[in-house]
Write a structure and sequence with these properties.
Blueprint (H helix, E strand, L loop, with lengths): L12 E2 L4 E8 L2 E13 L2 E6 L8 E8 L8 E14 L5 E7 L15
Antiparallel strand pairs: 1-3, 2-3, 2-5, 3-4, 4-7, 5-6, 6-7
Length: 114
Amino acid sequence: MGTRYPKERKYRRFDLQFPVSLNFLSGRVTCELGAVSKNVSLGGMLVEAYDQVPLHTPVRLTMNLVGLSSRRPLRLRSQGEVVRVEPLGDAGFAIAVECKRPIIEMEDRLPAVS
């Protein structure tokens, strides 16, 4: 009988709700999907959107952070892959994106999720 251990996260998560733009190819067409972040880490983010992005789709993401302790908006950009898509009923979809490289601009600027 196997014992299950909780999966440790590689990066600390940040509780952030900001607009996110996901750009990806669908066939030969470049699509842009607006979403809202739910939590963000140096290695990826969970967003909610009204439409879904297919699993394993490469995406470019952009998130503008306004109103934090910085005097100017902080723009986070990264590239990643959709690793999980879950329906949220009538509210759309939860989409988890794993980034290819850590989003280093976040480190030491944002409050961590408790």
